Amino acid sequence: MVVQALTKDENKFLLLEGVHASAIEVLKSSGYNNIEYHKGALDEKTLKEAIKDARFIGIRSRTQLSKEIIDAAPKLAGIGCFCIGTNQVDLSAAIQKGIPVFNAPFSNTRSVAELVLAEIILLFRRIPEANAQAHLGKWNKIAVGSHEARGKRLGIIGYGHIGSQLSVLAESLGMKVYFYDIETKLPLGNARQIKTLSALLEKCDVISLHVPENTTTMNMIGKAQLAIMKPNAILINASRGTTVDLDALAQALESKHLSGAAIDVFPVEPASNNEPFESPLCKFDNVIITPHIGGSTIEAQENIGVEVATKLAKYSDTGSTLSAVNFPEVSLPIPSQGVSRFLNIHKNQPGVLNAINNLFASRGLNISAQYLQTMPEVGYVVIDIDRVDFNKAEDMLEQLKNVPGTIRARLLF
Ligand SMILES: NC(=O)C1=CN([C@@H]2O[C@H](COP(=O)(O)OP(=O)(O)OC[C@H]3O[C@@H](n4cnc5c(N)ncnc54)[C@H](O)[C@@H]3O)[C@@H](O)[C@H]2O)C=CC1
Ligand SMILES: O=C(O)C(=O)COP(=O)(O)O
Prior knowledge:
Blueprint: E1 2-4, E2 13-15, H1 21-29, E3 35-37, H2 44-51, E4 56-59, H3 67-71, E5 78-81, H4 91-96, E6 101-102, H5 109-124, H6 127-135, E7 153-157, H7 161-172, E8 176-180, E9 192-193, H8 197-203, E10 206-209, H9 223-228, E11 233-237, H10 246-254, E12 258-263, E13 287-289, H11 298-318, E14 339-347, H12 352-362, E15 367-374, E16 378-386, H13 390-401, E17 406-411
Parallel strand pairs: 1-17, 2-3, 2-4, 4-5, 5-6, 7-8, 7-10, 8-9, 10-11, 11-12, 12-13
Antiparallel strand pairs: 14-16, 14-17, 15-16
Helix pairs in contact: 1-11, 5-7
The structure holds 1,4-dihydronicotinamide adenine dinucleotide and 2-oxo-3-(phosphonooxy)propanoic acid.
């Protein structure tokens, strides 16, 4: 149980993995100056120490926020993933502790789509090999195996924010776009949804993955799937490293079944730029290997910094959980001056709301507004009452934390 009635300086923000300076600007302009900033990810021991007194943490895709780490953070009230993927966070452990998790679902999608488009052209023209040879002083002016992208078939696995943007960009090059998704999706332009993954793999000249990491996408491209891809096809993965079996891909390249690949994400990625990187793909000149930089553009990172920092500051200031990925979403109006605001995060069980309302009524306090959302495990209620002095409010907070089922209660103002 955590009770809060804090000054802004008591809210420590722990920002890791070099999130963009725009995040710091947003936090500071919202009055949050207690910021601990690290350029890289922290090892587990250092992270446990740093997170102990953090109220908010900001990470990117590298930092694993397991249950164990979340349990080591007794004050943690909110998590910001300054990226799209939230697979690195134990979302269930977070909600059970009453901690909302926010991300930036759109800001880097264009950057990924543009990188993939570039890779399609480079691989069709065999530029990675020509480039590698030219760097070694070898002039190899040939057209063999070099193709235009125009008229070729692109198969997109996962037609979400990134996949659908890639679809539009690829059509503008004259490519024919097909996609496979577990959901029925509106095909943009002339794209066509294909019913099965294997039908997509058999049909297309380039396959590009744009799915999240989850149990359905784990090793979704392995030996069997690579075998049914067209001879000389190209595989691109800028989704998550767990979706493709890299040993099987290395074999498919070794046997020259595939003509090339571009891989941005790996099952194990170095924690920082100072650590070595190893992969069975390093020996292939026809593979573009990039260090998980699909979303790493100045434009994307700056926008993500603003977007996620704004969500964290807003949650801290007002209790708004709009667009949280694991939490009941409550959007709140700007409160009027004459209001005291309490938050109660509780187990979703009968009687909690009743007990809360009775508590305020029994103290003669008028509830001027109440906002409630629930999810199967957790309920989140924001209560505005006609303003009371701070001592009275603190006393009410103590009562509120004792309501059976309460996970966390906060007094905002
Ligand atoms: N390389 C990088 O730097 C970046 C990588 N990413 C990765 O790209 C992923 C996709 O991003 P968005 O397009 O924004 O996500 P999104 O959530 O908008 O789209 C994902 C799509 O995949 C579909 N899908 C889920 N499971 C599937 C399955 N088993 N088979 C087929 N389709 C399936 C969903 O229905 C959805 O349409 C992210 O989850 C993240 O892991 C995102 C940004 C940057
Ligand atoms: O947005 C995502 O999901 C990404 O994979 C980008 O991760 P990053 O912020 O570059 O660590």
